[in-house]
Amino acid sequence: MDQLAAGIAQVNDVYWYAVIALLVGAGLWFSLRTVLVQIRMLPEMMRAITEKPVGSSSDDSISAFRAFTISAASRVGTGNVAGVAVAIGLGGPGAVFWMWMLAVIGGATAFVESTLAQLYKVRGGDSYVGGPAYYIRDGLRLPWLAATFAVIITFTYGFVFNAVQANSISHSVQANVGGDDRTAAWIVGLAVAAITGVVIFGGVRRLSAVTEIIVPLMAIVYVAVALFVVAINIDQVPGMIATIVGHALGFREIAGAALGAALMHGMRRGLFSNEAGMGSVPNAAATASVSHPVKQGLVQSLGVYFDTLIVCSATAFIILLSNPQYGLTDPEGIALTQNALQSQVGSWAGPFLSVIIFFLAWSSVLGNTYYGEANIRFLTGNRGMLHAFRVLVMLCVLGGALGSVALIWNLADLVMGLMATINLIAILPLGGLAIALLKDYGEQRVSGKDPVFHRDRLPQAKGVSVWGDDDIATFTTPAGDAPKA
Predict the structure, then answer these.
(1) Which domains does the chain have, with CATH numbers?
(2) Coil, strand or helix at 123
(3) Nearest Cα to 453, choosing from 283, 287, 289?
């Protein structure tokens, strides 16, 4: 296992330079084309996330907020707690700075991919479905590439990333019972697999009903504890920020964690956490019932900030205010965060963080599984295949609880890079459609309207299957109630 983990790590060390170049290049290009939509339209993001679902059957529809929590369920998980710890342990404090930079740049990419997902969504069983496989097939007219992406994301999220989440839950529990305990790992794996099965066999509405409660509550509690840690160490905060920036820009080296390591591990863990450009979040964005595609683009752009600038920063501050070791060759993951928090607030932090990581990681398993299901439906309408996928998800959750930290994270990096590469190559040529939609949205807002989109407004978009007369007829915003720009 150690040799396999090392071999995958060597591939990642080379391949990820290309992935980072694509991520940064796409983010900067879309930031320029949208005139920094991820910054200038923050107030509009806050308005869009509170909108009720549109349509005559809106009680059964997925709201903008529910779609946000499905994506946040996948985003906010072990990447925010264990992943940040791995990045700091391997890359030093400068890794945090590069997480922040990727989030700001990636906000524009997240806007584009989620807007495209709304444009090219299709009607599913109990909601809309969509994502990169759909806009690659219908927008780029490349069905073979769409199928390739669907297979990769199903494997990545359904199996590998769910194993990552279960691995962090397992190691968190083991840290509280005294180290490597195989009995505890089996108990955790079986329990998480069982409760996952109960929810994922219930469909997307049951899933979204669970995530809209768990994700905000756990994130708020966790951030509140982090703020307490910051408050009791307020005199050390300026020095901590200086260390983050200084190490990120190469002004200082810390215990072997050099500039290159900080950039590489910060970007990897940042992408795993906020998923901007990876092509995962668009699967959730497509489920929302909204009157204009741009609304979900804005909501999911906000999700990048929520994930990285708030939740990931909370973990980073907890760790960095506890004088951790840097330049490690064997990442500690969740144990590093757990030990840091215990040193700040006492032994109760261990069980507390185990509860937090359980709910965050489990909600990520639910979000990840939905992404896989959406792409299974794209590949085949066979319900037997969908049920088989769900059973395999439960087995991977069990396997992840029993696996090693290094192998699980290295495999996650590899498949994550493959996903991001295909998605970014797809959205670069399609990005002009998202820019045109943003212009249409802005023009309607300036005229005092609540923006409504019809596919006739974007004739250059080929292969759009919804957004026709029947869809527009279901939008129920009363005349005169449109918010003013």
Answers:
(1) 2-473 (1.20.1740.10)
(2) strand
(3) 289
Please tell me what DSSP assigns to residue 129.
Answer: E
**Which pair of tokens denotes residue 360?**
């965050």
What's the confidence (pLDDT) of residue 482? 41
CA distance linking residue 284 with residue 130, whole number of Å: 8
From residue 151, alpha-carbon distances to 136, 176, 372, 378, 429 in Å are: 13, 37, 9, 10, 22
Tell me what percent of the chain is helix, strand and coil, each rounded to the nearest 5: 75, 0, 25
Query: Distance (Å, rounded) from C-alpha 170 to C-alpha 159?
Result: 16
As to burial, measured by CB atoms within 10 angstroms (0-12 exposed, 13-18 middle, 19+ buried), residue 176 is middle
Element (H, E) at 21: helix 2-33
Q: Which two tokens mark 267?
A: 């970007």
| Paired tokens of 145 | 């590439």
Give the predicted TM-score (pTM) of the model: 0.83
Q: What type of residue sits at position 382?
A: N
pLDDT value for 118: 95
Among 337, 145, 301, 121, residue whose Cα is nearest residue 229: 337
**Cβ(300)–Cβ(278) under 8 Å?**
no
Residue 129's DSSP bridge partners are 122
Around 220, how many Cα atoms within 13 Å sit in the side-chain half-sphere? 6
Q: Which regions in the chain score pLDDT beneath 50?
A: 56, 58-59, 255-256, 476-485
Dihedrals φ, ψ of 288, to 5°?
-75, 145
Tokens 């906010």: give the residue. Answer: 76
Structure tokens that stand for 157 in this block: 């999220």
**CB-CB contact of 297 with 114 (8 Å):** yes
pLDDT digits (tens, 9 = 90+) for 59-110: 456 777 777 776 766 666 666 777 787 778 777 888 888 888 888 898 999 9
How many of the other CB atoms lie within 10 Å of CB of 122?
15
Length of the chain: 485
Specify the pLDDT at position 31. 96
Check if the beta carbon of residue 160 is closer than 8 Å to that of residue 420: no
What tokens were used for 483? 């918010």
Please give the torsion angle defined by the CA atoms of residues 336, 340, 346 and 349, in that order, rounded to the nearest 10 degrees: -50
Q: Which residues have CB under 8 Å from 8's CB, separation 6+? A: 407, 410, 411, 413, 414
**Diameter of the chain by CA atoms?**
66
Instruction: Report the distance separating Cα 159 and Cα 242, nearest Å.
Output: 39
C-beta of residue 433 within 8 angstroms of C-beta of residue 111: no
